[in-house]
Amino acid sequence: MEKELICPVYKKCNGCQLMNMPYEQQLSWKQNKVERCLSQFCNVKKIIGMDSPYNYRNKVQTVYRTTKGGRIISGVFQSSNNGIVGVEHCLLNSKRSDKIAIAVKTVLKNLNIPIYNPKTDKGFFKNILVRTAQNTGEILLTVVTAKGKFPKEKEFVKGVLKLFPKITTIVHNINPNPTKMKLGSYEKVLYGKGTIMDVLCGCKFEISPKSFYQVNSLQTEVLYKTAIKFAQLNKDDVVLDAYCGIGTIGLVASKYVKSVVGVEVNPQAVEDAKKNKELNKKSNINFYCKDAGEFMTEMADEEVTSPNVVFVDPPRAGCSREFLDSLCELSPDKIVYVSCNPETLERDLHYLTTKDYSVTKIQPVDMFPHTNHIETVCLLSR
Ligand SMILES: C[S@@+](CC[C@H](N)C(=O)[O-])C[C@H]1O[C@@H](n2cnc3c(N)ncnc32)[C@H](O)[C@@H]1O
């Protein structure tokens, strides 16, 4: 194990809630938490940690502000007070992202581009989102501004590329909301193709600025391989990938099975998923843009071939009751539940085990070292 590092601003930033513990202790803390929530269902396997738990984030947001003295600072957004904690080198971020954030700051200063001030709602440049594809090296820089007209747009793009030529695409996004860090609806590609491609588990994935993509690529492969192994797929299986994002789990599964259907509510992610189907030359997979609960209800009502294996990977809130009811009605032989929140996972497992299911495997995977977030894969069998 390499030397443990401590970030000088971790208390102020509060992004790394467990940084006061050595990594081995963090893993025990997570293991205990999963066991507290889930050992009532079945034995919890030992959490799979990282060999090097630093610089793993492939998606990094950096906010810019101007000090009273007129100096531009960059750092992490604090939703509690709409302020920022100045950080130039985060121990979790990919090193390239931090270097790009500094390069952008230099260009903003050189071109005198006004930085947005949320207190006065004046200014222009708010934040950036850098996505790096771990396995192809492609880099997507999204620049977020409060207003539409980009002063010195061409000079900005040229300046950033000169300092960081490895950026493969730059997108301009407008978010006029003074308090939210989310991306706005308007987007314009300033350079390159507007998306990046990454490779995971032997499949290619095209990723747009707004699509969900797991932030820790190395551990995502561990997570997906665990999920696929739990499912014990075979060539007659009909699979549903619920909350499929850009189609990652479904596409990885598609090479082992008869057919796959993916459902996802974010239109940009579904567009990416459809492109990914083409990119990987898969004809046995289809994607639908819909609320997963509604989709499942319709599927349960229709006379269609029911899936016998369902992958479920919802956001932190877990699955809706509508979704779980329809899932039980469709009655697949196996459910592989991938969760980023042990509490909602516990709630949903309670529900499913009062129906026809029992939990037979539980594997935590550490996707977010130094934070209190925990990812878990569970297998349920009917
Ligand atoms: C944790 S991500 C998982 C995505 C994908 N399985 C992956 O590993 O990249 C959850 C996904 O659920 C989608 N989502 C959220 N609410 C949804 C809903 N009600 N119906 C369908 N998809 C939803 C989000 O847009 C997001 O892409």
From TrEMBL:
Gene3D superfamilies: 2.40.50.1070, Vaccinia Virus protein VP39 (3.40.50.150). One of its GO terms (biological process) is rRNA base methylation. Its EC number is 2.1.1.190. The keyword Transferase applies. PROSITE patterns: SAM_MT_RNA_M5U, TRMA_1, TRMA_2. Keywords: Methyltransferase, S-adenosyl-L-methionine, Transferase. GO terms for molecular function: DNA binding; N-methyltransferase activity; rRNA (uridine-C5-)-methyltransferase activity. The active site is at 340, 340 (nucleophile). InterPro entries: MeTrfase_TrmA_AS (IPR030390), MeTrfase_TrmA_CS (IPR030391), RM_Methyltransferase (IPR001091), SAM-dependent_MTases_sf (IPR029063), U5_MeTrfase_fam (IPR010280). Pfam families: tRNA_U5-meth_tr. PANTHER family: RNA M5U METHYLTRANSFERASE, TRNA (URACIL(54)-C(5))-METHYLTRANSFERASE. Belongs to the class I-like SAM-binding methyltransferase superfamily. RNA M5U methyltransferase family. This is 23S rRNA (Uracil(1939)-C(5))-methyltransferase RlmD. The gene is rlmD.
